[in-house]
Amino acid sequence: MSVKQRVGLAVAGLLAMGATWGTWGTAGAAPPIVVKPSSALISFDIPAGEACAYPVNLEVISGKGGAKFFADGRAFLSSPGMVIRLTNLDTGASMTVTATGSIHDAPTVAVGDELRWDSKFTGHNVLFGLADQEGSLVPVLKYYVGRVTLTNVIDVNGVFSAVDIDESAARVVDVCASLG
User: Fold this and answer.
1) Which residues have a Cβ under 8 Å from the Cβ of 12 and sit 6 or more positions away?
2) What is the separation of C-alpha 101 from the centre of its chain, rounded to a whole number of angstroms?
3) Of 178 and 129, more confident
4) Start-to-end C-alpha separation, the chain
5) pTM
6) Residues 6 or more apart from 78 whose CB is under 8 A from it?
7) Hey, is 108 helix, strand or coil?
8) Residue 173: CA atoms inside 13 Å, Cβ hemisphere, count?
9) pLDDT of the residue at 5
10) Full DSSP string of 147-178
């Protein structure tokens, strides 16, 4: 079943890799831009209300991040060996997950005043942000194993959001509930 996700859904693996999305050109014959896998060890706090009702620390404790951007707008991102520790900063409860998934981005397409593209996540991935669930915005932090597809939008004001996420082909762990 699809779950609608809105407003600032961020992908931890992309943050760890320092990758950015955008329009990378349209000439299909140009060679891809390759970002070779490199260390992606980072740590940052997610304030209460932005992923869970409590503050969370996300720490990449091992692994690498790499990317390949194609001239036609496609992108492939990978995170070999990535392991992430997620910690509830109020209680100290934590969990460590493998985040060795990959992300396949389709070319960006202009739709009215928006830019849109689909991302397909495979393997093990962590996503966080605010979800629009039946009209109410609620923070979420989820760990996926399997295939997840989401539709991304950048509006005329430059605001990024994920307007739809299909998690029907994945095992889903609600990290907020697990660490709460």
Assistant:
1) 58, 60, 84, 99, 125, 126, 127, 128
2) 10
3) 178
4) 25
5) 0.76
6) 37, 65, 66, 67, 102, 103
7) coil
8) 17
9) 31
10) EEEEEEEE-TT--EEEEEEEEEEEEEEEHHHH
